[in-house]
Specification:
The complex is a heterotrimer of chains A (385), B (88) and C (296). Chain B has helices at residues 39-43, 69-73; strands at 25-29, 49-51, 57-59, 81-85. Chain B is of the alpha+beta class and 88 residues long. Chain B has one domain: Alpha-Beta Plaits (2-Layer Sandwich), CATH 3.30.70. The longest helix of chain B has 5 residues, at 39-43. In chain C, the strands form two sheets. Chain C has an eight-stranded mixed beta sheet with strand order 2-1-3-4-8-7-9-10, sandwiched between helices. Chain C has a two-stranded antiparallel sheet with strand order 5-6. Classes of the chains: A alpha/beta (385), B alpha+beta (88), C alpha/beta (296).
Chain lengths: 385, 88, 296
């Protein structure tokens, strides 16, 4: 293992190269740009034998991925925020067509108001699209989850597309040490793309037919079943990944000091790193606090969470998104997962549009949670209160 | 039968839908008058006119919707196709 | 050489009897030849040919959305290129006018600008027929549609057809042509030519719709011929921005073509609307002059 210090986006681009997509189709948007710039120059330099399609919009970026994937190629795209919103129709469609597309999401807030900074509203708005959604805590996870995503998606028992989400700027533009795996190891892990079915004049198939009321319900059921099966596939391939690369992804939920924790925080993405530091300080001060990090949001690990939350006295969910008029998406899922359990679950909407979240904020939230105060936006400016 | 993953299917299955039941008028092709020009076969929106080994044409009434294009376009010198009201 | 016997579009599809588009598609597939992968945007053709599992396609076919067929084609082309299949297999988009001149133009423009090797064919039935005859950018002047209805204050669609072929000529397309299903040999020959021309090619095919335009289903070919004979539809070929062929006619007034269709009947009742018919005649005259179709 060789650790290298590099920018998150470049680490992702180099990892995508190792996965050997044959077609890359993407449109630039902040803060995803460095990934596609990186891939474009990797292709231009002959370091990856791929077609880079310089499309005119995100809508076409993902549409071209559908065509290339259906024709029998491993494909990649990356986007964020408004780009993902523009793609919306294609996002749902590509999932229903059951094409194993992997797309990086450098998470960013959604307009209006316009914001180029981080939260997770963009990928969360696609939670019902039938894509798998994985969230990276740091750049190493962003790297590893890309490789794992191809493995899971291309399994003929799964056949689904996946988002690999990593926080825009906070990860995408940050330099930190990462281990970029060896080409040979990635080749052995993934193997060449083996499409389940493809557009082929020797074996003509009609793709993307429409379903009448006699069939639509069944197609949705089968899609849902495949998303659910992806949980086991994640664990299985996550374990294989650990054996091959030395980093364990056999769980959909990461645990940090939860065994004896009275207060458990639940969060997704880079904020988990801040939370861990805060937990260390709180533990030193005698507070029994732990963290569950959601690494896989779709499928949602409801059973795992129930088992892991068993001994906690209270739960604080930190959501970098909000379903306006309801709660944060993670909190809604956690409440559903824990229905019937005697455990208070509080939601804290925070960090939207790039608002910094510090260790002191985490400690404040734990205090609020202990007082039974939650289901709120945290850290609002005084003038709106 | 398992569903085609992603709503896919293999060829040949539209033939299970016998569109001949839509018909109000049905065509009769008079082989004696037919000059075997092939116009009807080429323009039929259904593709339900086939050529036999002896080069004569046949209209597959399982699929013919009775639009009348073949009768209309059959060249004046032949006028080998006529349309007749279905008795139902 | 076009193989007239090639049948890649099967019986049992659900198009209306006398459908110009389905007749055109059979001809187009003959012109395209074997080893053609077809992409269809949402529309009449997609719907009448592929209710699961009853596909009418005997050649590989894919549909994704209404507006993204040419982006799909771009991805397929890139994939075939990488697999060493491009050339042995060809890519053909067949879409309606709504998907082509309206909602799909961004994707078409992008794909043509990038120069992918594929052919895009628009079957132009001059309105959104699948959703029930709404006005599109390809709907002709004064046509009565459900969203450009003729009425006391309206004589139907108040704008002429959008000239997408010329827009794609401006993209530098090596081959842009117009054709009609009413001239099958010409149509098939043009499709064959487009499919064998490297780069993004475009053909717009006049495809009369008996249901939407209001004429007897037997008359589909005849209506198509009448459009050409009066100059409201011109068949031409433009290679590398140069006009290289046009169908010349002994032009007749537009009246007979208009009178044969319900979508223009408001121009003739309660009395003949001379002013509007003159405007339509002027469109035909302009076409004739622009493409030099008149036989003196």
């Amino acid at each position: 293992m060789t650790m290298q210090i590099m920018e998150g986006s470049i680490a992702v681009a180099e990892t995508v190269r190792l996965c050997r997509p044959q077609v890359i189709s993407a449109y630039p948007i902040t803060p995803q740009t460095h990934i596609v710039e990186g891939l474009a120059s990797i292709v231009a330099d002959g370091r990856l034998d791929a077609e880079y399609i310089c499309v005119e919009s995100e809508f076409s970026a993902l549409s071209a991925c559908i065509g290339a994937s259906a024709a029998g190629s491993r494909v990649y795209s990356a986007t964020t925020s408004q780009g993902l919103a523009l793609m919306a129709e294609v996002v749902f469609n590509s999932a229903g067509m059951r094409l194993p597309i992997v797309m990086g999401i450098a998470n960013r807030a959604i307009s209006a108001p316009l914001s180029i900074w981080n939260d997770q509203q963009d990928s969360i708005m696609m939670r019902d699209s039938g894509w798998l959604q994985f969230y990276a805590e740091d750049n190493q996870e962003a790297v590893d989850l890309h490789i794992l995503a191809y493995k899971i998606c291309e399994d003929h028992n799964i056949l689904l597309p996946a988002f690999v989400c990593f926080d825009g700027f906070i990860l995408s533009h940050v330099y930190e040490p990462v281990d970029i795996p060896e080409q040979e190891a990635v080749d052995e892990f993934l193997g060449p793309f083996n499409p389940y079915q493809k557009l082929d004049c020797n074996d003509p198939i009609s793709f993307g037919m429409y379903a009448t009321p006699e069939y639509y319900l069944e197609f949705r059921y089968e899609h849902d079943q495949a998303v659910k099966r992806a949980a086991e596939a994640f664990k299985k391939y996550g374990k294989e990944f650990a054996e091959k690369f030395g980093r364990d992804y056999s769980e959909l939920v990461t645990q940090y000091k939860t065994e004896d924790a009275e207060t458990i925080l639940i969060a997704m993405g880079s904020i988990c790193g801040t939370i861990k530091d805060a937990i260390d300080e709180m533990r030193a001060a005698g507070k029994k606090v732990g963290l569950l990090g959601i690494r896989c949001f779709r499928p949602f690990p409801s059973e795992d969470l129930r088992a892991l939350l068993g001994n906690a006295k209270r739960v604080a969910v930190l959501d970098k998104n909000v379903s306006l008029g309801a709660k944060g998406a993670v909190a809604l899922e956690v409440k559903d997962a824990c229905y019937g359990m005697e455990i208070p679950i509080y939601d804290y909407i925070l960090g939207l549009g790039g608002r910094d979240v510090r260790k002191s904020d985490i400690k404040n939230i734990v205090a609020l949670c202990e007082e039974g105060k939650g289901d709120m936006f945290y850290g609002l400016r005084e003038e709106v209160l | 039968m398992p569903l085609g993953i992603g709503c896919t299917a293999r060829p040949g299955q539209s033939r299970n839908n016998k569109t001949g039941s839509w018909r109000v008028y049905y065509p009769i092709l008079d082989i004696e008058k037919c000059t075997k020009c092939g116009t009807c076969q080429l323009i039929c929106p259904e593709g339900c006119i086939t050529q036999n080994e002896d080069k004569t044409y046949a209209i597959d009434l399982d699929f013919c919707k009775g639009c009348g294009m073949c009768a209309e376009e059959c060249p004046d010198k032949a006028k080998a196709i006529s349309m007749h009201l279905e008795e139902k | 050489m076009v193989d007239r016997k090639l049948e890649n579009f099967d019986c049992g599809h659900r198009a209306c009897g006398g459908c110009g588009a389905s007749a055109a598609v059979r001809m187009i597939l003959k012109g395209a030849g074997e080893n053609t992968i077809v992409v269809s945007p949402t529309g009449c053709l997609e719907v009448f040919s592929t209710p699961y599992p009853e596909t009418a396609w005997k050649t590989p076919w894919i549909h994704s959305l209404f507006e993204n067929a040419s982006a799909l084609a771009s991805g397929i082309e890139a994939s075939l290129k990488k697999q060493g299949r491009l050339g042995k297999e060809k890519i053909l988009v067949i879409g309606g006018d709504g998907a082509t001149v309206d909602i799909g133009t961004l994707c078409i423009s992008g794909a043509f600008e990038r120069g992918h090797d594929f052919t895009y064919i628009c079957y132009d039935n001059e309105a959104y027929m699948n959703t029930g005859i709404q006005c599109s950018g390809a709907t002709p002047y004064d046509a009565d549609t459900t969203t450009s209805p003729a009425g006391v204050c309206s004589t139907g669609n108040n704008r002429p057809k959008k000239d997408l072929p010329q827009i794609l000529v401006a993209h530098g397309s090596p081959y842009v042509a117009t054709a009609t299903m009413a001239y099958p040999m010409d149509l098939m020959k043009k499709v064959e030519k487009a499919m064998n021309t490297p780069g993004p090619c475009y053909i717009q095919v006049h495809a009369p719709c008996c249901t939407g335009w209001g004429f007897d289903s037997a008359k589909t070919m005849e209506i198509g011929r009448m459009a050409v004979e009066c100059g409201l539809w011109v068949n031409y070929e433009i290679e590398n921005c140069e006009l290289v062929s046009q169908k010349k006619v002994k032009r007749v007034p537009v009246d007979a073509y208009l009178q044969a269709q319900k979508r223009f009947r408001h121009l003739f009742r309660p009395e003949r609307n001379e002013a509007e018919i003159a405007k339509i005649q002027a469109i035909a005259d302009k076409n004739a002059k622009k493409y030099g179709i008149d036989i003196e």
